[in-house]
């Protein structure tokens, strides 16, 4: 009896049922798509952060940033007799191993200081460098003052810089500058950049490699430079034997540098002395990270202490914009549409009850109780809500499918660099995000939470509309029906 009457009333009021169901369907579909996109952006952020170096490291300690203009660039000084001269042209070739220009280094004793901080499980230091090689040909020219411009130096002077290239005067010069990133690491350390790589050929650096001219090379760089295990690579003018090829443990991440050297070797070749550019810190537990960061900052007031959470806030580009848009505009839009849909459902239900005054009054006159009438109105509203939920779920799934088919991309860049690197390399810690923008495909995953939310919203809409409509219907009296008939 109840079901038959319920079905008849819904069919007889098709227009109201359709309007209420469509309103709820649009709101539910929007909520589903917005939540799926939010989950997709979070996944994209995780993918972007997985490409940041120092996997397994909780904190990094780096030197203070220097003011712009300080430090200067790579300087190549050539003696008057350097290079090979043939047919009036001097061929020059020189490599320099340099620390980052705009970030101060830390004394190696900083590692011991950090290790002694309460809550630190492990700490190790690394020295981020850039190997820059100048090679080219400079024609020998004479000026009226007798200066030998072929090598860029006056006769008898010791050093100078090569000309800027291109034809000048009665001749021309041609040269190139090539660079790759180098990271000096402690071979015996269990944390730091080497903890996030796997050996694809040869072997990794071992504690016994300290003080020896050996190197481990990134697989991508080795392929581009045609390097292999057993060969050599020139670093700072010294031939280093390649003992291993390594790749990142994550398919979405790069390694921290093109070339890895034992820390003491990197310090000696660069002439930087007993210093490091980054200290990698592992806390005893995740709960202790904030406290450890505060203690290290207090112990090293001139250093920069960064955490992964701070790095996440530095991810910029359209990924950050998309996240902000979905979190703010999308969420508020969903809330507004949902409220409008609920308001329409309530208003249409109350309006329908008002038009059914004769019907409800008559039902009361023949013995229907207020509770039975309330259940009737609430049941109709609940069914309308469930229909809207089913349609909204289909629309939402269609929207998610459309997003995944289109597969939009978002760009990820670095808004700030808290770690070393950035001088022709890829950095040495998780504070250094990718120097160049990379595109990440945005997917909108469907989660059980989204489906539960859709059903919940549908039931909520039906219950709210039914509660107001039932309350209105319960207030009618049989006398109102008799007056309506008269």
UniProtKB/TrEMBL annotation:
Q: Does the keyword Cell membrane apply?
A: yes
Q: Which InterPro entries match?
A: ABC3_permease_C, MacB_PCD, Macrolide_Exporter_MacB
Family matches, as PANTHER family: ABC TRANSPORTER PERMEASE YTRF (PTHR30572:SF4), MEMBRANE COMPONENT OF TRANSPORTER-RELATED (PTHR30572)
Q: Which residues form the MacB-like periplasmic core domain?
A: 17-298
Q: What positions does the domain ABC3 transporter permease C-terminal occupy? A: 333-478
Endoplasmic reticulum found in the keyword field:
no
Query: What is the recorded name of this protein?
Result: ABC-type transport system, involved in lipoprotein release, permease component
Q: What is the lineage of its organism?
A: Bacteria, Bacillati, Actinomycetota, Actinomycetes, Micrococcales
Position of the signal peptide: none
Q: What are the subcellular locations of this protein?
A: Cell membrane
Q: What is its main location?
A: membrane
The species this protein belongs to is Microbacterium testaceum (strain StLB037)
Keyword set, alphabetical order: Cell membrane, Lipoprotein, Membrane, Transmembrane, Transmembrane helix
Record-annotated membrane-spanning stretches: 17-37, 329-354, 382-407, 449-468
UniProt xrefs under Pfam families: FtsX (PF02687), MacB_PCD (PF12704)
Q: What is this entry's stated membrane topology?
A: Multi-pass membrane protein
């Amino acid at each position: 009896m109840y079901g038959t009457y319920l079905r008849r009333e819904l069919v007889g009021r098709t227009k109201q049922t359709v309007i209420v169901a469509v309103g709820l369907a649009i709101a539910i579909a929007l909520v589903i798509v917005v939540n799926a996109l939010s989950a997709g952006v979070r996944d994209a952020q995780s993918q972007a952060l997985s490409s940041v170096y120092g996997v397994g490291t909780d904190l990094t300690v780096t030197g203070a940033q220097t003011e712009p203009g300080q430090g200067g660039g790579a300087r190549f000084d050539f003696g008057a007799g350097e290079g090979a001269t043939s047919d009036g042209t001097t061929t020059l070739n020189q490599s320099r191993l340099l620390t980052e220009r705009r970030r101060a280094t830390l004394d190696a004793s900083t590692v011991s200081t950090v290790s002694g901080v309460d809550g630190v499980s492990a700490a190790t230091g690394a020295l981020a460098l850039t190997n820059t090689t100048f090679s080219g040909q400079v024609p020998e020219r004479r000026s009226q003052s007798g200066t030998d411009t072929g090598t860029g130096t006056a006769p008898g002077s010791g050093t100078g810089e090569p000309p800027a290239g291109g034809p000048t005067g009665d001749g021309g010069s041609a040269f190139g500058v090539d660079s790759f990133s180098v990271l000096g690491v402690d071979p015996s350390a269990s944390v730091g950049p080497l903890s996030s790589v796997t050996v694809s050929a040869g072997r990794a650096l071992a504690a016994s490699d300290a003080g020896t001219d050996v190197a481990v090379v990134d697989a991508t760089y080795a392929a581009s430079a045609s390097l292999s295990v057993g060969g050599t690579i020139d670093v700072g003018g010294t031939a280093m034997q390649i003992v291993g090829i390594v790749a990142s443990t994550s398919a979405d991440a790069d390694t921290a540098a093109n070339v890895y050297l034992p820390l003491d070797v990197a310090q000696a070749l660069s002439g930087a002395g007993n210093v490091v550019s980054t200290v990698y810190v592992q806390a005893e537990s995740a709960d202790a990270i904030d406290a450890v960061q505060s203690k290290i900052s207090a112990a090293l007031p001139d250093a920069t202490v960064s955490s992964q959470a701070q790095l996440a806030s530095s991810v910029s580009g359209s990924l950050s914009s998309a996240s902000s848009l979905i979190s703010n505009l999308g969420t508020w839009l969903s809330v507004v549409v949902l409220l409008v849909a609920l308001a329409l459902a309530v208003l249409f239900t109350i309006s329908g009850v008002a038009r059914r005054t004769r019907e409800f009054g008559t039902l009361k006159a023949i013995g229907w109780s207020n509770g039975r009438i309330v259940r009737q109105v609430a049941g109709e509203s609940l069914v309308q809500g469930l229909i809207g939920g089913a349609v909204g779920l289909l629309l939402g799934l269609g929207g998610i499918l459309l997003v995944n088919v289109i597969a939009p991309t978002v760009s990820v860049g670095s808004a700030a660099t808290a770690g070393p690197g950035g001088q022709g390399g890829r950095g040495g810690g998780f504070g250094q995000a990718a120097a160049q923008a990379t595109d990440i495909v945005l997917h909108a995953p469907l989660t059980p939470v989204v489906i539960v939310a859709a059903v919940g919203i549908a039931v909520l809409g039906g219950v709210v509309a039914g509660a107001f409509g039932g309350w209105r219907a319960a207030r009618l009296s049989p006398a109102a029906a008799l007056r309506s008939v008269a």
